[in-house]
Structure formats: structure tokens, C-alpha cells
């Protein structure tokens, strides 16, 4: 009997649907709010970061958002960038402010945290400030991180909306503050049984094989192989620009899978813009 391929999620088609939805929501805002700017801060010339910023700009323009990029050299003084963020954060014409990650390693975690926390929480559409991360972990999110929101959307497309996650065994590979940790927290709050794994996890396959849903955001191409997943698994690949799953092999075994590119990535961009619209809607 021939192997049955998994249902492959079409992230670009779903992005188009969200684009139309956000266009309608933008038009419902009063003119003053519609004119607010979304500012993306880019430090250095990392090609992947530049590509992602271009994707955000394109989507923003398509739905009528005034998107601006403020770029600094990789050698820029962190204090100069922090001062600029504070200035833009207090600018009433700017409705959303974000910093493209990763930042230069030489800055260190303390400086990076100071930089992110210089963004006013109400304008932190990436949900990276300590305030917004705290609200998220407490179950009272101001914004869901865009990638988390994208995965929630994909789960619904796989037949697993929040109400159906109760009791489901889910393995999340990767523990970043951007994806892995907040995603695991959200899943647990829906009642899923979550295994949170990373590069330090011994015998990763033992955890992935037990899971009905495997979500990987490790950034290690080909990490998840067919022998590491159960038949019919929902396989969600968050890694970019190359996926964590052995796509061809896992697709032959899974019930549902996301490709890279064209899966979660387009939705992440869309939901980031959705967070900006939400920030404008919540303004006093």
C-alpha cells in the first residue's frame, strides 16, 4: 500500500486571508490612529534579519500601515540605540516599536534586556519587554508573540483549536523567550500535557515519539527525523530559514505538517501586524 502524505499547511494562502481581515480592521480605526507609524529597529546587516524586515514592510504597506525602518551599524554604541528607542517610545505619532533580533552578541544579555525594556509595553507588539512577558506568563497577555499566535492558528487548521488541546501530548523543541517558552506556557494553559525540550534534553526522540503534536523551533536543520515521530503526528516547523523537520520523511508519516518556507513564517508576519492594529485599538 502506498504511503499517505500528510496534509501540508499553506501559510501563504492563510496570510492572504489575514491580509484582507487586517485591511478591514485598519479602515475601522479613526484617521488619527490610522496615521500612526510602526517602527522597526535593525542593528547590523544580518541577511536573515534584513529579509524579515523586508517581509514586514511589504505586508504593512499592503494593509495601509506606515512602516519605518531605523537602522544602526553593528558597531553602534548600545546606549545610543537605547536612547533612540526611548525617544521613539515617547513619540505620540509612533504606535508600535520593535527591535529585530538577534542583536550583536557583544552587547550581552543585560544590555539587550535594558534595550528591549526601553520600549513602552503598550507599543511592544513583539511582546519582548519584561512587563509583557510577565503578563503573558500570568495568563493575561497584552499581546501574544506573533509566532505563538501563528502556531495557534496552525493548530486550529490541523483540527486542534484551543478547546481540543485538553489532555493532548505536545512536545515543544526549543526554549527561546520569543517562541518556545511562551508557546509552552500557552499550551499548558489550554490543558495540554507539554514536554519542553532543547539541545540539553537527553534522548530527544523519547519525548517526540510520545507526542501527538511536535512543534520545533530549535533552528537545527533536519533535527526531527521520521523515526522520531509517531504516525499521524501534527508536525509544526517554526525554524527559519531552513526547517527542523526532515520534511519529506516526516510528511510521509505525519497527519499534518507545515513546510519551510511557506508555513508558519508568513503567519508570523501577519500576526505581528495584527498586534500593531490591536495596539492602536487599545490606545487611550
Computed structural class: alpha/beta
Outline: globular
Number of strands: 9
Mean pLDDT: 95
Residue stretches low in confidence (pLDDT < 50, at least 5 long) are none
What are the secondary-structure elements, in order, as H or E? EHHEHEHEHHHEHEHEEHEH
User: Main sheet?
Assistant: 6 strands, parallel
Radius of gyration: 19 Å
Assess the beta-strand content as a share of residues: 5-15%
Q: Number of helical segments?
A: 11
Counted up, domains total 2
Task: Provide structural commentary.
The chain is an alpha/beta fold. It folds into 2 domains: 31-120, Leucine Dehydrogenase, chain A, domain 1 (Rossmann fold, 3-Layer(aba) Sandwich); 145-265, NAD(P)-binding Rossmann-like Domain (Rossmann fold), CATH 3.40.50. 42% of the residues lie in helices and 15% in strands. The chain has 11 helices and 9 strands. The protein has helices spanning 11-28, 31-34, 47-62, 78-89, 108-116, 130-137, 146-157, 180-189, 204-210, 247-251, 264-282; strands at 7-8, 37-43, 66-72, 94-99, 169-173, 193-197, 213-216, 234-237, 256-257. The mean pLDDT is 95.
Notable characteristics:
284 residues; alpha/beta; Rossmann fold; 2 domains; six-stranded parallel beta sheet; three-stranded parallel beta sheet; 11 helices; 42% helix
Topology:
Layout: E1 7-8, H1 11-28, H2 31-34, E2 37-43, H3 47-62, E3 66-72, H4 78-89, E4 94-99, H5 108-116, H6 130-137, H7 146-157, E5 169-173, H8 180-189, E6 193-197, H9 204-210, E7 213-216, E8 234-237, H10 247-251, E9 256-257, H11 264-282
Parallel strand pairs: 1-9, 2-3, 2-4, 5-6, 5-7, 7-8, 8-9
Amino acid at each position: 500500500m502506498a504511503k499517505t502524505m500528510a496534509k501540508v499547511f499553506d501559510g501563504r494562502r492563510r496570510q492572504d486571508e489575514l491580509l484582507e481581515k487586517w485591511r478591514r480592521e485598519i479602515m475601522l480605526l479613526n484617521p488619527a490612529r490610522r496615521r500612526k507609524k510602526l517602527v522597526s529597529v535593525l542593528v547590523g546587516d544580518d541577511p536573515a534579519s534584513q529579509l524579515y524586515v523586508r517581509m514586514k514592510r511589504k505586508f504593512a504597506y499592503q494593509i495601509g500601515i506606515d512602516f519605518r525602518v531605523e537602522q544602526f551599524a553593528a558597531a553602534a554604541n548600545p546606549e545610543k540605540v537605547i536612547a533612540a528607542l526611548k525617544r521613539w517610545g515617547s513619540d505620540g505619532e509612533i504606535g508600535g516599536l520593535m527591535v529585530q533580533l538577534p542583536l550583536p552578541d557583544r552587547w550581552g544579555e543585560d544590555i539587550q534586556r535594558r534595550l528591549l525594556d526601553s520600549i513602552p509595553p503598550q507599543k511592544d507588539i513583539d511582546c519582548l519587554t519584561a512587563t509583557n512577558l510577565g503578563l503573558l506568563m500570568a495568563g493575561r497577555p497584552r499581546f501574544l508573540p506573533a509566532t505563538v499566535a501563528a502556531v495557534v492558528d496552525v493548530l486550529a487548521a490541523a483540527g486542534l483549536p484551543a478547546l481540543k488541546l485538553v489532555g493532548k501530548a505536545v512536545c515543544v523543541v526549543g526554549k527561546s523567550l520569543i517562541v518556545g517558552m511562551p508557546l509552552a506556557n500557552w499550551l499548558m494553559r489550554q490543558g495540554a500535557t507539554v514536554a519542553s525540550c532543547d539541545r540539553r534534553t537527553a534522548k530527544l526522540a523519547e519525548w517526540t515519539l510520545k507526542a501527538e503534536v511536535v512543534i520545533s523551533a530549535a533552528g537545527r536543520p533536519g533535527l526531527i527525523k521520521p523515526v522520531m515521530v509517531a504516525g499521524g503526528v501534527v508536525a509544526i516547523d517554526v525554524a527559519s530559514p531552513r526547517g527542523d523537520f526532515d520534511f519529506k520523511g516526516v510528511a510521509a508519516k505525519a497527519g499534518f505538517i507545515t513546510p519551510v518556507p511557506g508555513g508558519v513564517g508568513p503567519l508570523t508576519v501577519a500576526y505581528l501586524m495584527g498586534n500593531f492594529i490591536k495596539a492602536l485599538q487599545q490606545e487611550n
